[in-house]
Structure prediction request, 198 residues.
Amino acid sequence: MLSQIHLGGMQLLVLSAHAKVNLCLDVLKRRPDGYHEVDMILQSIDLVDEVMLEQIGFESIELGGALAGTPCGPENLVWKAAMLLASHAEACGRGGGGGRRGVRITLNKKIPTAAGLGGGSADAAAVLAGLNQLWNLSLSLSELEALSAKLGADVPFCISGGCARARGIGTELAFLPGAGGSQQGAPPLNLVLFTPHI
Prediction:
């Protein structure tokens, strides 16, 4: 999922953000906050977006790449993830400060947008995990998952990926032996995905 390249004094991280499918989904009651209670099985698949993070020498977030029609500014979930982590790091006094929190994000979309495959959530999760490393924040997996829930119900699953039963609004995760051969002894799972233009 993560490759690291050093270019001169700058560091570049290249991440694979995996799409996910819902193997089963049971929508339960509607909550007072507008969310629905769900019980579902999520599985990461090998369809990926490529996310590149480059540390830049000033406090700024830049977003570009093959965005496949997704916004490239503050309304993009990737941008929101970077801002959330920078704010959290500042509030907690983690990982140094100021100019060390600059990043150039290059996103190469392969996961179809608005197809229910969690592409935006996967990209946001990759940014959180990558910036945690790039900015030397040393947040634990559970801290990243808790923080990521502020971005959306699918993002905590995308932090770890694999196969999980998700309950509540989708953020209560119990990881399972996965399909697709990613875990020892797991049978291969072949999927055909149709994403018609509607």
In short: The chain has four helices and seven strands. The radius of gyration is 17 Å. The domain at 2-18+47-154 is CATH 3.30.230.10 (Ribosomal Protein S5; domain 2).
